[in-house]
Description:
- This protein is mainly alpha-helical.
- The protein has a single domain, classed as Arc Repressor Mutant, subunit A, CATH 1.10.10.10.
- It contains seven helices and two strands; from the N terminus they run αααββαααα.
- The protein has a two-stranded antiparallel ribbon with strand order 1-2.
Amino acid sequence: MRMSEGVEWAAHVCLLLDWLGDGRPVSTGRLAAGYDLPPPYLNKQLQALVRAGIATSTAGARGGFRLARPLEKITMMDLVTAIEGPEPAFQCTEIRRQGMGETTPKSAFTSPCAVNAAMTRAEMAWRRSLAAQTLADVAADAERDSPGLPERVRAWYASQKT
C-alpha cells in the first residue's frame, strides 16, 4: 500500500500546530516554511484536515490554521482517512470469474474471494493499529527521540519573519 506524501505532511503539521501551542492561527506559508514545502499543495492537505474536523481555519490577514481538538483526540487513522479518504486500499474486481473462470458455474463462487479476504484481514489489522495510536502518542515518541524538540520548533518560528 502506498500513501501520498500528504499524510506525512499533515501529521507533521498537526504536531507543529500543537508545539507552537499559543492558540493563534498559523498561516499556510508559515507552516510550509518549517518543512520547506510548497504552500499551495500543503494548503490542500490542511483543507482536508478542516473538512475532517481535525483542524480549523480562519480567513483573513491574521488567519490560518489551528487544531480543532487536542492530539489525544486525533488518531493516526483519523489523519490517514482525512487525507486519503475512507475507501479500502484493496478493491477486488473478481477476476476469478474471468478468463478460465468465465465458464465456471456461478454456484462455484458462493464463498468470498480468498485473495480479497486475506487483503481485508490485513487492512483491518492496519486500520486498527492506526486507530490505536493518537497524535499525542506520536508526539511523545518524537519528543523522547529528540529531547527539547517543541522548544526548538518554537524558537525557529520565533526567529522567522512574519
